[in-house]
Amino acid sequence: MKKQINPTKILLYLFISFLIVGGQACDHMDDEDVVPSPNTSPPTPAINPTGRVFDLNVDLIPANDSSYYYFYTSFDSLNVALDSLDVVLAYIEYDIDIDTAGNILSIWTLLPHTRYLSDNQRGVFYEFFFSRYNFFLTAESPFNLIDTPSLIQNQVFRLVVIPGEVLAATSGGSMHIDYSNYDEVIKRFGISESNVKRIDIKSLDSDFSKSTINKGLF
């Protein structure tokens, strides 16, 4: 049987590509416009030498397709400013554990990630896309996700912003980092639970998402 192409997913990917390419173009324009005076010292980059971490609790919304859900917003809405070389990692809380002291611990896995139901036959594929200014979180499955609200509602994601200059310094050699290992990432970048900023994403303005759906972009 010939596999049908999901037009919803194609349009969403095209829109994501437009955001990323547009953001990169703006960055290059900014680089070309800045001409330092020969009589002044170059400005000191305002970059946090350690990682920044944000927890988001979100309800994914359908993109006119009950098997494809997403969440979109800008970094500006989170009061987060990215440098052009910064990298953002997204993890999903897929389980919790309890330590010997009785504390509840979140278990994080790097996106993209497939979460399987108890029957091990059905799964949901979560992905993360970002540009310098915006980001998408998506969930896709061959079955109707509206029947499993626990997979699309109150999903906890953790975004870790890695400064570009630090990333370059830790690339390769003995400084190689396994970014799929959340514990290794927070250790290398000096992150603790006290550094995590928890954001009530449901209180943010979602007019963009609603107007986009109404205009039929997805």
Summarize the structure.
With about 220 residues, the protein is of the alpha+beta class. It is about 20% helix and about 30% strand.
What are the key terms here?
218 residues, alpha+beta, 4 helices, disordered C terminus
Walk me through the structure:
The chain is an alpha+beta fold and 218 residues long. The chain has one domain. Helices cover 22% and strands 30% of the residues. It is built from four helices and ten strands; from the N terminus they run H-E-E-E-E-E-E-E-E-E-H-H-E-H. The strands form two sheets. It has a five-stranded mixed β-sheet with strand order 5-4-9-1-10. It has a five-stranded antiparallel β-sheet with strand order 2-3-8-7-6. A hairpin with a 6-residue loop joins strand 6 and strand 7 (123-130). The protein is globular. The two termini are 26 Å apart. Residues 28-38, 40-49 and 205-218 have low confidence and may be disordered.
Outline the fold blueprint.
Blueprint: H1 7-33, E1 52-58, E2 61-62, E3 68-74, E4 87-98, E5 104-110, E6 113-116, E7 123-130, E8 134-140, E9 155-162, H2 164-169, H3 182-188, E10 196-199, H4 207-214
Parallel strand pairs: 1-10
Antiparallel strand pairs: 1-9, 2-3, 3-8, 4-5, 4-9, 6-7, 7-8
The structure class reads alpha+beta
Order of helices and strands: HEEEEEEEEEHHEH
Strand content: 25-35%
Biggest β-sheet: strands ordered side by side in the sheet = 5-4-9-1-10
Largest sheet: 5 strands, mixed
Number-wise, the strands total 10
